[in-house]
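Hi V.,

You were right to ask for the full record rather than a summary. Here it is.
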Amino acid sequence: RYIDPDHDAINSTTAGTILGAQIIAVRLWMLMRADPPEAGFTDTLTYTTPDADFNITPCAPGGGCPYPSDHRRLAVSKTILLRNTR
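Predicted structure:
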């Protein structure tokens, strides 16, 4: 989410927009998955996106599952503070 009061990319009159606000930090989240499946490994964790819009729950491989449980995953996040923003 970001605020862009000077351009038309974001409608600055929508609810939740703070007029005159400046970005002072950026937070990045990534969920990485190993490319090859690993025999004998089962991922039983549930991964929640930062805004909790949906959960990624690994399931049994095969059968058209979008998140097969036989892959290793790593969830990482990083907050970057921006200098000289005020």
